[in-house]
């Protein structure tokens, strides 16, 4: 008993050490990349006008932050992304549930969803502007269109991957289709659903930035486009880096939620 406990402690310690090593290497790669970038820019081996540098991006960040302009752009983009993500996720799960419930509807609409998913959503930008107008609603709708089909397809595949024998057993005991869905199908597909949220986050960011490129007067997408128009590449690179950090933060938030729910399901 004690030898098993000792072996278990050794295994846990090794696993924690491995996780710390992975985190250290991740951070080290990023720091090394930034230091090398700054060094090459200072030595004029890289054109700092075209490629900027970490120090120039830092000065631009502080300058915009001091006036509050940067936080306006960040807040606008975050709000649009969160709304688009939530709407796309809810609608995608609702469509997946509907198509699981009715195989007939699934077969009818499947070709249309495939075409809509393959269609470059940026092509719909001018149409959305005409229909809705240039503003936040058009950007949110763009984000919704980009993310909803991917979410629906992924979640539906998760529903269909649940073992049919479990559903058959419940139906044999007189369970309704709703009971089968709530007690077997949805819980069984929860890991896939949470994975779909990770994909949906990235797609929502893509939709929002594309929308801001087209119609926005505020937001990180607008900031990036404006920086390119006036040849302020430090502004473009700074906006891109902030965008990466925000997207990574949202992704890590969903990953933490997935880990927490998975731990509860395995208890």
Overview of the molecule:
The protein has 267 residues and is an all-alpha fold. The protein folds into 2 domains: 1-46; 54-265, MetI-like (MetI-like fold, Orthogonal Bundle), CATH 1.10.3720. The protein has 12 helices and no strands. Helix 4 (69-101) crosses helix 11.
SSE blueprint:
Blueprint: H1 2-42, H2 48-51, H3 54-67, H4 69-101, H5 103-118, H6 125-132, H7 136-161, H8 164-172, H9 177-188, H10 190-215, H11 220-229, H12 233-265
Helix pairs in contact: 3-12, 4-5, 4-7, 4-10, 4-11, 6-7, 7-10, 8-9, 10-11, 10-12, 11-12
Second rung of CATH, namely the architecture of the largest domain: Orthogonal Bundle
Strand content: under 5%
Helix tally equals 12
| Global outline | flat
Q: Can you give the helix content as a percent range? A: over 70%
Largest sheet: none
What is the CATH homology-level superfamily of the largest domain? MetI-like
Provide the structure class: mainly alpha
């Amino acid at each position: 008993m004690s030898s098993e406990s000792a072996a278990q402690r050794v295994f846990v310690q090794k696993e924690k050490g491995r996780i710390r090593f992975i985190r250290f290497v991740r951070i080290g790669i990023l720091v090394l990349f930034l230091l090398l970038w700054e060094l090459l820019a200072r030595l004029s081996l890289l054109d700092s006008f075209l490629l900027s540098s970490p120090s120039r991006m830092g000065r631009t960040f502080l300058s915009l932050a001091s006036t509050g302009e940067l936080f306006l752009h960040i807040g606008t983009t975050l709000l649009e992304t969160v709304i688009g993500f939530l709407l796309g996720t809810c609608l995608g799960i609702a469509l997946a549930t509907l198509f699981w419930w009715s195989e007939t509807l699934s077969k009818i609409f499947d070709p249309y969803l495939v075409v809509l998913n393959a269609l470059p959503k940026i092509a719909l930008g001018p149409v959305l502007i005409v229909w809705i107008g240039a503003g936040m609603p058009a950007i949110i709708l763009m984000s919704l269109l980009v993310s909803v089909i991917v979410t629906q397809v992924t979640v539906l595949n998760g529903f269909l991957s649940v073992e049919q024998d479990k559903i058959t057993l419940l139906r044999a005991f007189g369970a309704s289709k709703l009971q089968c869905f709530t007690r077997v199908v949805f819980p069984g597909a929860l890991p896939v659903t949470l994975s779909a949220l990770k994909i949906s986050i990235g797609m929502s960011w893509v939709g929002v930035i594309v929308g801001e490129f087209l119609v926005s007067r505020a937001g990180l997408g607008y900031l990036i486009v404006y920086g390119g128009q006036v040849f302020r590449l430090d502004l473009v690179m700074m906006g891109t880096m902030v965008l990466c950090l925000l997207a990574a933060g949202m992704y890590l938030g969903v990953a933490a939620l997935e880990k927490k729910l998975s731990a509860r399901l395995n208890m």
